[in-house]
């Protein structure tokens, strides 16, 4: 009996030791993970946008805004290329990339492109708070109503709303994360501009994927856009506060019906299609098909910016070995991202 009793005690002690060892191992694993997270964060996270020195913001800065807020979302190599191209082509301009909430940075430590982007001294990766970003703009009280937070298109709507808020507040150049920069902004003589996206019979559209505001005339136009959002916003309508709103307000601002007849008014320039949208959305595949390489490069040779139509093309990854137009452009305008990715 004594032997059996002692054996039971030994077994219990053994089980406790195993449990202690297992718990200790798990603790050490996750403790070291957390330390690595903090170490990576120290490299990646600069701070909130509100802590960025104002002189970095107001000197004709270039803005990107990421409003996706899902637990598994990471930016793609193409989006990293868009960011790098803006910094690479404009070494004397500050490129500010804004991410919705600080918690997104915890996931971004796994993003392989960060270390390449941070080699550029003019790239600033920042998180933001919506209320802080819309403070001192006409959106300040309206955003607190919660209209946008209840929208099924929250990510898209926030993207539109916040670009207007940033340009109203700071001026500068806003770019979507699927826009490759080709020309330095200082080589473009116009201080306020957007690009014609579509010009069809009885239908014209100005897209806000490329939008520059640099003086009071441009700021007045942005104010009109914000007022239009506040007056007409319907959370159930996906596209109403994007290109449709930009087009409508510009026609009112310029008092015109045809952007081809009047391409500039009140110091705001409507750039022709080939400057930003040389390849239209329904032909997005031309950037990624070898048979279209020459045509795509010829079409974009006079472009200032190239829109890659991420909404249509995001699932279509391309090997770097392919001789497609996007690879040619990436190798030239986002060399670090191109060099360090086998697939884009």
Keywords:
two-stranded antiparallel ribbon, 42% helix, alpha/beta, 344 residues, 13 helices, single chain, 9-stranded mixed beta sheet, Spore Coat Polysaccharide Biosynthesis Protein SpsA, Chain A
Fold topology:
Elements: H1 2-44, E1 47-48, H2 54-58, E2 62-66, H3 77-89, E3 95-100, H4 104-108, H5 114-117, E4 123-128, H6 130-134, H7 154-170, E5 172-175, E6 179-181, E7 193-200, E8 203-213, H8 216-232, H9 243-254, E9 264-265, E10 268-271, H10 293-299, E11 305-307, H11 310-313, H12 325-333, H13 335-339
Parallel strand pairs: 1-4, 2-3, 2-5, 3-4, 7-10
Antiparallel strand pairs: 5-8, 6-11, 7-8, 9-10
Helix pairs in contact: 7-8, 8-9
Please give a structural write-up.
It is found in: Golgi apparatus membrane. This is Alpha 1,4-glycosyltransferase domain-containing protein. It holds the Pfam family Gb3_synth. Residues 217-340 form the Alpha 1,4-glycosyltransferase domain. It is a single-pass type II membrane protein. The protein is 42% helix and 16% strand. By secondary structure, it is of the alpha/beta class. The protein folds into two domains: 1-44; 47-274, Spore Coat Polysaccharide Biosynthesis Protein SpsA, Chain A (Alpha-Beta Complex). It has a nine-stranded mixed β-sheet, sandwiched between helices. Strand 7 (193-200) and strand 8 (203-213) form a beta hairpin. Helix 7 packs antiparallel against helix 8 and helix 8 (216-232) packs across helix 9. The longest helix has 43 residues, at 2-44. It is globular, with a radius of gyration of 25 Å. Mean pLDDT is 86; it is low at 23-45.
């Amino acid at each position: 009996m004594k032997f059996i009793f002692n054996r039971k005690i030994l077994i219990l002690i053994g089980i406790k030791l195993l449990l202690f060892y297992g718990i200790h191992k798990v603790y050490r694993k996750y403790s070291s993970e957390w330390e690595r997270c903090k170490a990576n964060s120290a490299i990646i996270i600069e701070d909130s946008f509100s802590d960025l020195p104002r002189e970095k913001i107001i000197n004709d800065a270039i803005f990107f805004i990421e409003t996706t807020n899902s637990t598994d979302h990471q930016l793609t190599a193409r989006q990293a290329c868009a960011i790098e191209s803006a910094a690479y082509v404009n070494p004397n301009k500050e490129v500010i990339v804004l991410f919705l909430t600080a918690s997104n940075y915890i996931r971004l430590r796994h993003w392989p492109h960060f270390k390449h982007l941070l080699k550029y001294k003019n790239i600033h990766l920042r998180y933001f708070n919506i209320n802080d970003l819309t403070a001192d703009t006409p959106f300040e009280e309206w955003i607190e109503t919660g209209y946008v937070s209840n929208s099924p298109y929250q990510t898209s709507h926030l993207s539109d709303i916040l670009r207007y808020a940033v340009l109203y507040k700071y001026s500068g150049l806003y770019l979507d994360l699927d826009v490759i920069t080709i020309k330095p902004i200082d080589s473009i003589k116009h201080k306020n501009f957007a690009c014609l996206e579509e010009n069809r019979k009885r239908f014209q559209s100005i897209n806000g994927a490329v939008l520059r505001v640099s003086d009071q005339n441009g700021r007045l136009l942005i104010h009109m856009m914000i007022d239009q959002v506040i007056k007409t916003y319907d959370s159930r309508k996906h596209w109403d506060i994007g290109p449709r709103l930009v087009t409508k307000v510009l026609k009112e601002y310029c008092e015109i019906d045809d952007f081809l007849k009047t391409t500039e008014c009140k110091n705001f320039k409507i750039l022709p299609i080939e400057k930003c949208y040389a390849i239209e959305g329904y032909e997005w595949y031309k950037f990624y098909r070898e048979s279209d390489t020459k045509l795509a490069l010829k079409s974009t040779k006079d472009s200032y910016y190239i829109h890659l139509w991420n909404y249509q093309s995001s699932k279509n990854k391309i090997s770097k070995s392919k001789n497609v137009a996007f690879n040619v452009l990436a190798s030239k305008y986002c060399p670090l991202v191109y060099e360090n990715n086998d697939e884009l």
